[in-house]
Amino acid sequence: MCRGLATLPITCLERAKDLKTRLGILLHKPELRHRMGTSSKLQLGSRRRDSSQEVLEWRESFDQLLKSKSGVTAFHTFLKTEFSEENLDFWLACEDFKKTRSKTKLASKANRIFEEFVQSEAPREVNIDHETREITRKNLSGATSTCFNEAQAKTRTLMEKDSYPRFLKSASYQDMTKQA
Predict the structure, then answer these.
(1) Model confidence over 91-106: pLDDT tens digits?
(2) Least crowded by CB within 10 Å, which of 10, 94, 117, 139?
(3) Superfamily, domain 46-179
(4) Which residue range or ranges hold the RGS domain (predicted)?
């Protein structure tokens, strides 16, 4: 955990999380969205390198979105508007972690990922249950490329069931499909 955050009272951290949630809700209010102007709109469709077909494939399945580099970028941009990009960042960190071959690098990367995303009150804590958090903590003692599998799967499911449907309904994705 960040040393600065560790010195704050729990009530301050809870209020900060609450504020983060409220700001995310405000960004989705239609009456506020039009006041923000076009400069604040997501520029997801501005890149022509996204093929029309690829953009349309993202709605077929969450897997299709994750397979596409530009799809991941668009989804990440959307998650930033909801202040929930830590879920995707964790998932991507786990994917990168699985490619690590060196035992020493594996252990240090595992600890870094755990401290940043998994441990209680981590700076970018992902929403997983206590049991999964403890299983992951135990897996760190003998860090292998699979030590985050359960936590990563839970985070992926959360994104697929919660954030992904909102992304597909978002004005930014709708604009992209119209351009396609």
Answers:
(1) 999 999 999 999 889 9
(2) 10
(3) Regulator of G-protein Signalling 4, domain 2 (1.10.167.10)
(4) 61-177
